[in-house]
Amino acid sequence: MKNIFFICFCALFAFSGCADDDDDLLTGGNVDIDLLPDAKPNDVVDPQVFEAINLNYPGLEKVKEFYEAGEHYYAANALLEYYRTRTNVTNPNLSLINVTISEAEQAKADYALVDYRFHVNNFYEDKETLKPYSVKQDGGINWEYSPKDASDEYQKQLHRHQWFIPQAKAYRVSGDEKYIQSWIEAYGSWIETFPYTPGTVFPPAGGSENDVDYQWKGLQVAERVLSQVDIMPYFIHSTNFTPEWLSTFLVAFEKEVECIRLNYYQSGNILISQYQAVATAGILMPEFKNASTWATEGTQGLNESLDTQFNDDGVEYELDFSYHTAAISDFREIYLIAQANNKTNLLSPSYISKLKKATEFVMDMIYPNYTIDNFNDTRSASYAKSTLLNRLKEYSAMYPDDNGLLWVATEGKSGSKPSYTTKAYSTSGYYMLRNGWDKDATMMILKNNYNPTNQWHCQPDNGTFGLYRKERNFFPDAGVFTYNTGAARSKYASTVNHNTMTIMSKTIGVAKPTGQGGVMEGKMIKLTTKNNVDILVTENQQSDDITHRRTVFFVNNRTFFVIVDEGYGASTLGTKTNINFHLLSDKDTPSVFDKNLQTSVNSNKYYQAYTNFDSNNILAATFTETSQDLTAKALSSTDVTNIVSTNTDKEDGPIRLGYQITLRQPKITPIEISATRYITILCPFESATEREELKVDAKFTDNEDGTAGTFHSEGVSIQVTVKGTVYDLSSK
């Protein structure tokens, strides 16, 4: 009999999820006593498991029989064998056949075996080897440990147990019991250290997790639940996965789910993850008494959140690319789970169609070389090309009829190239201008967010932009650097560190207690194409007195850009405005800012800066309408460092050369409104010789009486010259 059991067990191990319907050795009928493990006292099993599990669920007949007979250990053993053989649930997120593990995942699994070096995203003792910090103390695990000078993000992510799935994969691939032993030790320690009393409701503290008991709040709990439904199948056939450990695991699992239900966030990406976790638990763990409630409640929350999580243009309401893609993943994953388990009836009929705009936004925000910018709190370094392609492939599978999406997802190997070259996400405030989709194309993304609720992840930098050409982003965003409230975050989020207008170098709006900038209410005035020139006009209230209007012209068959900036308000103010630009640079090829005022062939004055690479460069030349209090200066490199590092305690990465042009607002009487006005030409070139040949020039042509500073609400008219060719441009 033991040999029969061993053969069946091995077959199940090799073909997880498959069971012989004729085999009732472990799942029903009379049980041969020889197949039962040695008896153990009832108290080795957590009795709460039998309160959590629905003993009347199909397949649990033997569990119920043993339990009612007072044989708790045998009941737990029968429950374990049920989970090892069940075929009624499909988890599309994993396959237990031919499991593979990446080198990075293997490293996370192995590091955890030595001195409790538990992987925490973006925090490393040795950045080069990605060696995690050790949380070992006095031979045990110090769950309160936090590296010196680390942000509070370390502690939050430590309690998301990000090394458990790598260990589960490592076990499935190798069969080495050390991985499950490590998991049981660590998770058992965690459960003991942070007990949860059922029914506990934590104070919301304004949605903050940075207070006591954060181990049981927000993403910490949601991510644990979502990982545990994967961890269990990987480990379930191990001899170390005992009936008593199963009872511990399942009781803890129920507490996690019920804790989420009592502590939902009011809104945001965390709420979506919470709903996803609850719905996932309900569908993939139907044996629990509350499973049906979990599934219904979680999916209903997701149905309702589709309209609140995404603006009507499809952009996630926190206006951050990383949280946007995470939200899509949350909604997508529960759809796949529901689909695989015949539960799509729980989802709204329009569920999938509503996600379509969200996936289009991702496609439109990716530069042609499959990179992204650091807008808001996005960290571009976290999005390798492979990561972005994987996301796009997932979206393409959701929408197989979208040939444009397929083309981008396959790097042009399938589908058809998208035909459009401009796109406005005007509710949220993102705009795309491009001349093609190939890697050598030119593309601008302008960010002018509508953010009246002052979302934390949205930086006060309306009007800023990134400009890509031939695999180089010439105006990269400053990035987030850190999530910590304080001087470091304020520095990188500040308006002056972005490619936009400031009022006396101040951050947009009124400073909030959090240190984040004030409210922004960016709006689009116009996006059109006229005479083969793309024209984008946006506005943002930079202060109580001054509004910034930015007009972008994509000129000469979409080869170069002209930007007109106008800071307008009451003409009696005489306020100083600044235009700030930050060019990509590095140690070997530093960009150049010419501090000398240049004179065009037509005697117009301008300042210029340019990149200095061997090829593929750009010139930025800024002309002003007046010279009243005109000044120009380079911005400190320490203030314009583009953080691409995933380590939040070091300022490293490519240096951006910044320059700032300042004008005083003219006073015009009897006109009530006046404006400081700037024209900036952004023109590509290859060599220094070609740069000299550009011979740029620009002037305003809309003030017929010659009165400088007059603002025209209907639009602006200018004339620019590049390489001897004159371009008359107007947004009217």
Mind explaining what this structure looks like?
The model is unreliable at 1-31, 206-210, 510-517 and 637-650 (pLDDT under 50). Helix 3 (61-68) packs antiparallel against helix 4 (72-85), helix 7 (164-174) runs antiparallel to helix 8 (177-193) and helix 16 (385-398) packs antiparallel against helix 17. Helices cover 31% and strands 20% of the residues. A hairpin with a 4-residue loop joins strand 13 and strand 14. With 732 residues, the chain is of the alpha+beta class.
Produce the secondary structure layout:
Elements: H1 2-14, H2 49-52, H3 61-68, H4 72-85, H5 103-111, E1 136-137, E2 140-141, H6 153-158, H7 164-174, H8 177-193, H9 218-235, H10 243-262, H11 269-284, H12 291-309, H13 321-340, H14 351-354, H15 356-365, H16 385-398, H17 403-409, E3 422-425, E4 430-434, E5 442-447, E6 450-451, E7 465-469, E8 472-473, H18 487-493, E9 501-503, E10 520-521, E11 523-530, E12 533-541, E13 547-555, E14 560-570, E15 576-584, E16 592-599, E17 605-610, E18 617-624, E19 631-635, E20 656-664, E21 673-685, H19 688-694, E22 697-700, E23 717-722, E24 725-730
Antiparallel strand pairs: 1-2, 3-4, 4-5, 5-7, 6-10, 7-8, 9-15, 11-12, 12-13, 13-14, 14-21, 15-20, 16-17, 17-18, 18-21, 19-20, 22-23, 23-24
Helix pairs in contact: 3-4, 4-10, 5-7, 7-8, 7-9, 9-10, 9-11, 10-11, 11-12, 11-13, 13-15, 16-17
